[in-house]
Amino acid sequence: MTEEKNNTLNEEVESETNEQVELTNEEVETVFDEAGDSKDNAAHIDYAAEIQNLTSKLEEADNRYLRLQADFDNFRRRTRLDIEAGEKYKAQKLVTELLPTLDNFERALQIEADNEQTRSLLQGMEMVYRSLVDALKKEGVEPIEAVGKEFDPNFHQAVMQGEDENFGSNIVSAEFQKGYMLKDRVIRPSMVKVNQ
């Protein structure tokens, strides 16, 4: 009886082992199939990673190109503005050097002539002064109006304060030196006395 039991048990163990071997073979085939798929997946993943890497490099290159283009556009705009400003204010240095000459002419023209020779000399100086002022006007130079205007630190330089009943508070009451503008730029502010 014991032999029969042993045989029966052996048969059961054998059948289970065969089933396990069969399952294991099926599992192995499935694993191999999946391994084949995973090889394809791995290759697919490698390609996807490479595509993503190349795409990011392309985007980076595009961004760099766009930044360079923007920098170049800004450079071109700044250069154009510098050239325009250079053309617009090309006479600034000359005007700055001529302003003391204008001041001297104005002082000389305030002298009172007491004889005919002095009067004719003053007339000649006045003609030269007017032609100089006209030439500067053609370049865009204009005197800054000061007396009777409200004090503006952008155009006036206050060197004195005083009290004058003829002028209101913060109004320029006297001008000591004329100020000038070249187009829209102040070349020299007016030196003025401001009423308190």
What can you tell me about this protein's structure?
The protein has 196 residues and is of the alpha+beta class. The chain is 65% helix and 16% strand. It is built from 3 helices and 6 strands, in the order αααββββββ. Strands 1-4-5 form a 3-stranded antiparallel beta sheet. Strands 2-6-3 form a 3-stranded mixed beta sheet, with no helix packed on it. Strand 4 and strand 5 (185-188) form a beta hairpin. The longest helix has 87 residues, at 2-88.
Gap from first CA to last CA: 136 Å
Count of beta strands? 6
Question: What does the overall shape look like?
Answer: elongated
Class per helix and strand makeup: alpha+beta
Mean pLDDT: 81
Largest sheet, if any?
3 strands, antiparallel
Order of neighbouring strands in the sheet with most strands = 1-4-5
Flag low-confidence runs.
16-25
Q: Tell me the β content.
A: 15-25%
Total helices: the number is 3
Share in helix: 55-70%
Helix-strand pattern, N to C? HHHEEEEEE
Radius of gyration based on Cα positions: 49 Å
